Task: structure prediction
Amino acid sequence: MIIGLVGKPSAGKSSFFKASTLADVDIANYPFTTLKANSAIGYVSIDCVDKFFGKQCNPRTGFCKNHKRFIPVEMIDVPGLVPGAHKGHGMGSQFLDELRQADVLIHVIDISGSTNEKGEAVDALSHDPCNDVLFLETEIDLWYLNILKRGWEKSVKQMMQNKENTIKYIAKQLSGLGVKEEHVEDAVKEMDIDAESPQSWPVDGLLDFAKILRRKTKPIVIAANKIDIPGSEKNLEKLKNKFPELTIVACSAESEIALKSATTAGAIDYLPGSKIFEIVKNINEAQEKALEFIKINILDKFGSTGLQKVLNTVVFDVLKYIAVYPGGVNKLEDQYGNVLPDCFLMPQGSTALDFAFRIHTDIGNNFIKAIDVKTKKVIGKEHVLQHGDVVEICTSK
Result:
């Protein structure tokens, strides 16, 4: 699973990326600070099952604190997109190609309206962030359309002459975008067009077809960044009213960076996603004022900085992944004594056999049965797993 960060220049994408991953990236208040895609590890959080067993886990990847397990996910930060990106404006074609591998997109917008469509600084609240949502979705949809339309007439002739399956052909053509046959089938049904007669498809209807495929393969969550700037709440309310079908989460990347930096410096105790922090050593007056601002204007008002909520929403609500632990009924530790060292993110609907293969191909090939460690009940290979399950796989070797 890969999460892609998109947006116009200077919307706060790099700040969001740094706040999520603590990666060392350039952050500046001018367009095109980021000139190439950055990749790093962010974390989603869950209530850890170690509490169920009365133990403290020792993750091999990620970390666990106060029985909150933080599971790593890969993130890519793509340079800012500008109008006409699908035509190559502002190196848009190159930047969009970086998104091919992404399973979901976080669109970071400047909810304060303090950057125009080019990413240039303007007075706060003077730019309508609703325009940013429309612009970016249009660019992504037209990018899909361009790929679909490349040699469309020639492709149709080839499909007809060779009697190729239209759905399989299009899925293969767009496989680099993550499009699968079931996505094409759904789009055909939604458009109410004849899959057996692609020559009858209206060319001007291909955009709607591309939009459907994009929504299914690159769903978008809106991270309404810079909510800490006064007046931004009105823009947030306007955005939600105009786009009720979208998932929109208010956030402040700068606040999250400040809290994590203070935590790293040992000044405060803070758990990502929490609405509280504790000052644990003496700090100067300026630092105290900055933390007090974050507490009053962000944490008390919104319940968190919103960064962790965005990531959790993307993985668990939009992509609908679940977290599953390998473990043993009689032993939760690995050979080194680490308790519940691994936790895997699996697509909803995954079976015990899917999980066995996720751990290792040999384990999947030699699967005999599985055991639900919490209930100690035997489960078969077709058993559908649930979020938070701990599963022991029994093999023939």
